[in-house]
Amino acid sequence: MKHAYSSIPVCMALLLGLSPAGMRAQQTPAQAVPVSTTGAKPAADPQLKISPLRQLQEFEPAADAQYQIGAGDTIDLYVAGHPELSHPYTVGPDGRITLQIAGSVTVVNMTRDIAAKAVADALSAYYTSPAVTIGVEKYGSNTIMVFGAVQHPGVLDYEGTPPTLLDAIARAGMTTVPGSKDGLPERCMIYRGNDQAVTVELKQLLTSGNPLSDIRLRRGDMVFIPIQQQQFISVLGEVLRPGPVPLTGDLDLKMAITDAGGLGEGAGSNPTIHIAQTATNKEITISFHQLMKPGGGNEIKLQPGDMVFIPKSGFYKLTYLVSKISPVATMVSLGALAAP
């Protein structure tokens, strides 16, 4: 797929003198955010907690992080002295490759060296001290999705290291932003998996020189660029279509979950629904059965930026990690800890 490129974000960064090294040197420490709970059923456990700066830094992959093999990648496997085993293998959707004699071996989410050791261990039952090396011939899993107010929404393929946020937006192509002289969107959202989301106030971050304006992305990330002045909430966790949901005037909690595709199989029959109100740093919980009763959830008023999280059945202790990076970045990471 061919993509039109736009240099607006990159040029803006250059005009502001925001080199990657200079931007990261200006990073400001996290500021404490007052935390409280409210609503028809305030949450006692889990509760809204402040995240240290380390948590936000962990959201961004390390610059020197080794590539991890993904489903769809084609790897070049070499076993010294065994040409019958040495050829390309495509990693299946289950994260495995199939070897002669040794059978299936899991290599997904492993570095080349670790995957080579896993293959050598599998072969050692049939061969004496097999020497294995692995390279990546084709990066079939290295993708980022960009959608929303861009010219070319969809999946972007990358060779090697995933891109930064500005690179991904430039590849997707900027749309005309009414009333904006530089064409930059005010903010964007990064979704990682079905349980993490970060809001990036892009224009303010660029202007202030904050390095998070060009945060490094991770394979599989989804970048959402809202339409100017568009208001939305995020529905994450055990739903069929986790991600942003437009906040219309009549949107309530039931409709928001429906718009996200409804409950997924992992939610169970009566999950506890958690609403993190990012504007006030408050949290509300309500059971699914209570929500589905006549008038259930009417007291819960959704606000722009709210996070709705539905945990996996059997996981009941949730930790909401909220961090504000001065002055304009907010991250909410929704993680589940297994019950003891």
TrEMBL record:
Domain SLBB: 233-310
Domain Polysaccharide export protein N-terminal intervals: 62-136
Membrane topology value: Multi-pass membrane protein
Superkingdom to which the source organism belongs: Bacteria
Sequence ranges assigned to domain Soluble ligand binding in this UniProt record: 144-180
Keywords from the named record: Cell outer membrane, Ion transport, Lipoprotein, Membrane, Palmitate, Polysaccharide transport, Porin, Signal, Sugar transport, Transmembrane, Transmembrane beta strand, Transport
Parts forming coiled coils: none
PANTHER family reported for this sequence: POLYSACCHARIDE EXPORT PROTEIN GFCE-RELATED
Record-given protein name: Polysaccharide export protein
Species this chain originates from: Paracidobacterium acidisoli
